[in-house]
Write a structure and sequence with these properties.
Oligomer: single chain
Distance between the termini: 72 Å
Strand order of the largest sheet: 1-2
Order of helices and strands: HHHHHHHHHHHHHEE
Radius of gyration: 25 Å
Number of strands: 2
Length: 258
């Protein structure tokens, strides 16, 4: 059967199915479209663009379009626009999260952050909220907003102290901070190392993250101050130290790069 003919029949039957009240039948019908292999992103847009334009506030229609395109991992503007329309008529944390994921996958970090922030504000479950904060922190870090990334990483840790990724992102965020004093900047890597070590210890069930943490800890060690620089400041290895560099501060331990 030619794809054009198949999709024409589907569109005709879909209009009929809109009148059906049996949700299981509707779900089966949509499932058959996916199984057919004809429901690629282009065909879905051809079918539904006109229907969405005529019924922009139909929550059931928008949910169907968004879910079908999500299953097919579509990344078109129509998919993103449909997600925004869907959220407008059926706002929820889950929809906001999924719309954010669609924009993030498309490389639109501004829109992704917009919807993730909405999701964080409306989420009440601490574990889910922590996960959303980690996602925001990761995007902010990738965008070069280290201070904002650190803020959300700390929020995630407050909500879920077992979040290895939150500690890892906070470590990398601190390393991106800057200040005028060279030694103060080097001392930040003591804090960054501590946080990376914490992330490594928490990631017992994530071998890949542990490997990344180990490599990052090695990078941090390479930036530790030299022993002579510590000596001239009256500092010895193992001594307690208060780091202060721009917006980064914290208590750590002196370690020299011997």
């Amino acid at each position: 059967v030619e794809t054009d003919h198949f999709m024409g029949e589907y569109e005709y039957l879909a209009a009929k199915m809109d009148q059906v009240t049996d949700e299981q039948a509707k779900s089966t019908f949509d499932g058959q479209l996916i199984l057919s292999g004809a429901a690629d992103c282009n065909n879905l847009e051809l079918i539904y663009r006109g229907r969405v334009a005529k019924n922009p506030n139909d929550a059931a229609l928008l949910a169907k379009v968004f879910n079908l395109m999500s299953r097919n991992q579509c990344q078109s503007e129509f998919y993103q626009e449909g997600g925004e329309k869907y959220y407008a008529v059926a706002p929820s944390t889950e929809v906001a999260r999924r719309v954010a994921a669609a924009f993030d996958k498309a490389g639109n970090s501004a829109k992704a952050l917009e919807y993730l922030r909405v999701a964080v504000a409306s989420e009440n479950d601490p574990a889910l909220k922590a996960n959303l904060c980690v996602q925001i922190a990761g995007i902010e870090l990738a965008d070069g907003s280290a201070r904002e990334a650190a803020n959300f990483a700390r929020q995630a840790i407050e909500l879920d102290a077992s979040s290895a990724m939150a500690y890892f992102i906070l470590s990398q965020s601190y390393a991106q901070a800057g200040c005028g004093d060279a030694f103060a900047k080097q001392s930040v890597y003591w804090l960054a190392y501590d946080l990376a070590a914490k992330a490594h210890s928490l990631a017992q069930d994530n071998e890949q993250l542990q490997d990344v943490c180990s490599k990052w800890m090695g990078t941090c060690r390479a930036y530790f101050p030299k022993q002579s620089d510590c000596f001239f400041r009256g500092l010895q290895d193992g001594q307690g130290y208060n780091v202060s560099c721009g917006w980064v501060s914290g208590r750590t331990t002196v370690r020299s790069n011997k």
